[in-house]
Specification:
The protein has about 400 residues and is of the alpha/beta class. The protein has 14 helices and 13 strands.
Length: about 400
């Protein structure tokens, strides 16, 4: 193969001054808010309860029913939901919790909030989810919990992880911030792990502005989560008012992590579009998979048997061995075409805070680190039109064709 990198094939890339595929930037993810959502919020603003009122329990019940869990406890962010779950699992100084480096830093930070130590284990190269064999190699007498992440919306290897947890008496906190509506062996995410956390940030499947949720089948976890999110107090203000009582008891050291009624009304209204939203994301993923099949230099996200991903992200990997450009150049070229690609994630242990505190130098988690070198998230959100999807396909095709040129031509 002869490399002739300045041979240009087809249209000029926008990064070289050519016409961009789109006039305006298509983001990698964004919310959609309906008039009905706005009306639902306005109604709460006119009511008696802005914070913990009737919409909180209504939203939690609807969410628990959707996930197929006994309990859902709302929080004011996905991060505070993770903190609550780490607290309820009893993580404390001296403990360790095993998690993945291929995530947003909030997953491992919640272990640090409890004074415990996050221990990373490497991922499987197909799904970029925690590799059960790697988890086993990291278990010590100090391990108390495992925090798998359902990367991009593809459920983690939950059966294997729960089996390891059972053998060692560990709690599984699944960070399903990407996976609301995802299915694993016919079961919905949210009813499988001991606790499952969700984020309700605007780029996720369902939004409350900021917000989070923990689902669980365990009444003791649900009670601790409810107390922890409200200063460790054992009853809420509305219950006290309706019982005509002034007395309250603080029974543990909690936070103020409550999700207001205003936000719960938005979440409740958003739930009505959730099934359609998931179907649309799956259709977009299917369209990408079909149109990118066989494209040189692109590795598409893998889907394991018996899994139905929720497709929060559509992360492809650039195979630098097949192209004359690496991920960084592909990223710039696609941005110039007005395709809002992103990168998920810089492996957590490579962030300065983790390097400085724990002495990571890079090289500790080779599968995650090498995947990161090629990762590029293409736009994926339910309000994308067919034209938006076509723009992504055209732009990726145009850019890949250019950078593959040196390998095609003799
Ligand atoms: C979005 C996200 C979070 C944090 O959620 P916030 O609601 O932004 O606090 C945690 N973990 C993962 C994997 C996420 O994608």
């Amino acid at each position: 193969m002869k490399q002739s990198s300045n041979v240009s094939v087809g249209e000029a890339l926008a990064i070289h001054g050519g016409e961009p595929v789109r006039k305006t930037l298509l983001p990698y993810g964004r919310q959609s808010i309906s008039e009905q959502d706005i009306e639902a919020v306005a109604e709460v603003l006119r009511s008696d309860w802005l914070t913990t009122g009737p919409k909180v329990a209504e939203f939690e019940e609807a969410f628990a029913a959707f996930a197929g869990a006994r309990f859902a406890v709302s929080f004011n962010s996905g991060t505070s939901a993770l903190h609550g779950a780490a607290f309820a699992a009893g993580l404390a100084p001296g403990d360790e919790a095993i998690t993945t480096p291929m995530t947003f830093c909030a997953t491992s930070n919640c272990v640090l909030y409890q004074g415990a130590r996050p221990v990373f284990a490497d991922v499987s190269s197909d799904t970029l989810n925690l590799d059960p064999e790697q988890i086993k190699s990291k278990i010590s007498s100090l391990t108390k919990a495992i925090l798998p992440v359902d990367y991009a919306g593809h459920p983690a290897d939950l059966d294997a992880i729960l089996k390891i947890a059972e053998q060692h008496g560990l709690t599984v906190i699944e960070d399903a911030s990407h996976a609301l509506g995802g299915e694993y062996q016919g079961r919905r995410v949210g009813q499988i792990s001991h606790m499952t956390t969700f984020s309700l940030h605007p780029v996720k499947h369902l939004t409350t502005g900021e917000g989070g949720m923990v689902t669980t089948d365990r009444a003791d976890f649900a009670e601790t989560l409810r107390r922890f999110r409200s200063h460790g107090i054992s009853s809420d203000a509305r219950a006290r008012q309706s019982a005509g009582q002034w007395q309250y008891e603080m029974v543990l050291l909690g936070m103020n992590y409550r999700l207001p009624d205003v936000n719960c009304a938005l979440g409740l209204s958003q739930m009505q579009g959730l099934t359609e939203n998931l179907a649309r994301r799956r259709a977009i993923a299917a369209s990408y998979a079909e149109q990118f099949a066989g494209v040189q230099g692109l590795i598409l996200p893998a889907v394991r048997a018996d899994v139905n991903p929720a497709w929060h992200l559509y992360p492809v990997r650039v195979d630098a061995g097949q192209l004359t450009a690496g991920r960084a150049e592909m990223f710039r070229a696609l941005r110039a075409e007005n395709i809002g690609v992103n990168v998920h994630y810089i492996p957590v242990h490579l962030h300065p805070y983790y390097r400085e505190r724990f002495g990571y130098k890079g090289g500790e988690y080779p599968v995650a680190e090498s995947a990161y070198e090629g990762l590029l998230s293409l736009p994926m959100f339910h309000a994308m039109t067919d034209e938006d999807v076509e723009d992504v396909v055209r732009a990726v095709g145009k850019v890949v064709k250019y950078y593959a040129a040196g390998f095609h031509r003799t």
